[in-house]
Design goal:
alpha/beta; binds 3-methyl-2-oxobutanoic acid; binds zinc ion; eight-stranded parallel barrel; about 20% strand; 16 helices
Amino acid sequence: MAEHIYIFDTTLRDGEQSPGATMNIQEKIRVAKQLEAMGVDIIEAGFPISSEGDYESVRAIAKALERSVVAGLARANREDIDRAWDAIRPAKYPRIHTFIATSDIHLTHKLKMTREEVLRDIAEAVSYAKKMTDDVEFSAEDATRTELSFLCEVVRTALKAGATTINIPDTVGYTVPTEYAHILDTIQKEVEGIEKIVLSVHCHNDLGLATANSVMAIQHGARQVECTVNGIGERAGNTAMEEVVMALRTRADLFPYETGINTKMIYPTSRLVSQITGMKVQPNKAIVGANAFAHEAGIHQDGVLKEKLTYEIMTPESVGIPKSSLVMGKHSGRHAFRDRLKSLGFDLNTDQIQKAFELFKALADKKKTVYDEDIVAIVMHEVLRIPYRYRLNYLNVVSGTSAIPTAVVTMEIDGEPVRDVDFGDGPVDAALKTIKKMTHSKSKLLRFAVNAITGGTDAQGEVTVHVEEDGISVMGQGAHTDIIVASAKAYINALNKLEYQKAKRREEANQS
Ligand code: KIV
Ligand code: ZN
């Protein structure tokens, strides 16, 4: 029987450390639920001591999940561990993940500690965490640049103190597959009792080797792979979950291993994370990039038409990429729509399904063809959004070669209808300027990006905006067949998120 490889997802912790990838608490819960639904074994929900917000979101995720283990990160000291435990204790399956750096570079320049002191801290931290939960993971930060005999000593110490998972991270993405294999082989040869724990790997992609290193590690005894959706993470990112999972599945002839991941949920999850974080997936990204299954060269197209296997090593359907044919039309019923949502990886409640269905019908009236991508956009942008102060009711923009771009906007602000008009340098500028005036927003627009979700001139356009005010920075998304409307929706979505964050900040200030 195939051996199980534990998938440890750190999108919400290491992934969220990517510049600009911050998520609010609702977004984190949404991602966590999606990860649980797709079969992730362990979800690292955050680093509770790092901020009040992180603590709260880890706690909320711990309460919300039922099947996955929920891990909270903590440095190897009592204060961090107490805070992590406090956050994860409501979880059905809580895990404390404690770490300390072990390489001489880190010991000398960062920690200013001796090796003996580090070993003492590991023993103390792991046994302290063990008093709270049986499930304790220890990570030797910068393990791949740690002198190997000392790394073995570190692993021995963590094992003796009671760690149940021991992680050997390639923190700076420095190692290469053969060297990583040697490190793991040596640990398994030198550390007595190592078979009692789960050996884990955690790779960063600075040299583009994170997936190769993780897969090699599995062949050399690792049974837990730490990864993120779309490979987001510090600097060049972490191992991409979708790449490891699909490598194991596609090359099952080489790898007698299985993961619990429902691969059909890979693509919807990738879209969810990309839309929430505002981090676009590069078109040539393996598995989930827009071009990952596109065949451009005539010779390739000819081959694929004759037999898919000529140029396709896996099918787009196997990773949940919707077939690029018409899937639903205006005559489709509620039942078929609900099934379609399920197969796209969405687990919605009755009200959410109803809302999505109404929006789908409205879109089907306007658009000849409604693609799965359109449905995904409706759900992401319109159904799973956070509570709002502002709502767009009407937008009319006049522009052209001889007209000054002018926008007339009607909005609901705190339930009251408001209408205004303004000019701009272009139609989008006019619309956004008018909205800004109406909402009296002091925010700054830092980034504006447009993407066509589906092909053709009746495609849904997807807009992402990055907005900042008083140190709070949020992403807003909007989708519509009219790109100006999509822009207005994205901007209003961001302003709603800002309002939410500001209200939360005020609440925290009042409490303290
Ligand atoms: O990269 C790293 O070493 C980490 C540890 C905290 C596991 O993220
Ligand atoms: Zn990391």
